[in-house]
Amino acid sequence: MITSETTHPLHVSLGDMHFKKMIDQEEILSRIQAMAAAIDGWYKASDFELIVVLKGAFIFAADLVRWLKSDSVIHFVHLSSYTGTTSRGKVDVHLGYEGPVEGRSFLIVEDIVDTGRSICFLTDMLRKRGAADIRVVALLKKPAAHVEEVQVDMAGFDIGNEFVVGYGLDYDQAGRNLPHIYRSIPGPA
Fold first, then answer.
1. pTM for the whole thing?
2. How far apart are alpha carbons 79 and 81 in whole angstroms?
């Protein structure tokens, strides 16, 4: 539960963790608009399909597709590799992509790329099934946390190796609704 007197606080508490605003919603939306323009440039008139990684990327993806001029089919997959703030070191598939792949172009939309395991898992699966082209966009990227060789064609923001919530990202399913991105801090907010 969020504990604050305002609807857009500088600090929030979720469960036993405390967070401070890191990236403002207006800055996020401005960056997403620029990312959409770049994506339109990649594909121009060619067909591509979006694969949105649930649950965290749903807000980012919704805002991104509003700015895309290209029309595309949207699919959803649900992968998880975290418990609380810690990666389990393996990827669980709760909802996989079962549609046709061979010869198609895919744009994977991810909330955050940290260890890289989820993105590597998904891109490897699409390559093995014959995808013609795979690109990855992420709202956030944590280069210092990568444990895999990671393909990220465009990231909204590079951040340090810190735990973040908001704008779709969560801490044990809490905080997805926050309009800004917050980073964890020690002690009470």
1. 0.86
2. 7
Total Cβ atoms within 10 A of residue 155: 20
Specify which residues 73 forms β-bridges with: 49
Name the token pair of 67.
């700015």
Query: Which tokens go with 17?
Result: 């963790």
Query: Alpha-carbon distance 5 to 115, whole Å?
Result: 35
Among this protein's residues, is 114 annotated catalytic?
Answer: yes
What are residue 65's DSSP bridge partners?
A: none
Task: For residues 88 and 115, give the distance between their C-alpha atoms in angstroms, rounded to a whole number.
Answer: 10
Q: Name the β-bridge partners of 76.
A: 52
What does the pLDDT look like over 38-74, one tens digit per residue?
Answer: 999 999 878 899 999 989 999 999 999 999 998 888 9
Residue type, 40: D
Q: Which of 63, 114, 158, 172 is catalytic?
A: 114
Q: Pick from 117, 154, 120, 121: which is nearest to 136 by CA?
A: 154
Q: Is 43 exposed, middle or buried (0-12, 13-18, 19+ CB in 10 A)?
A: middle
Instruction: Show Cβ contacts of residue 45 under 8 Å, excluding neighbours closer than 6 positions.
Output: none
Judged by DSSP in three states, 34 sits in: helix
Token code pair at residue 38: 């770049």
| Matching residue, tokens 């305002």 | 6
Q: Which of 180, 155, 154 is nearest to 165 (CA)?
A: 180
pLDDT tens figures, 152-175 = 999 999 999 999 999 999 998 899
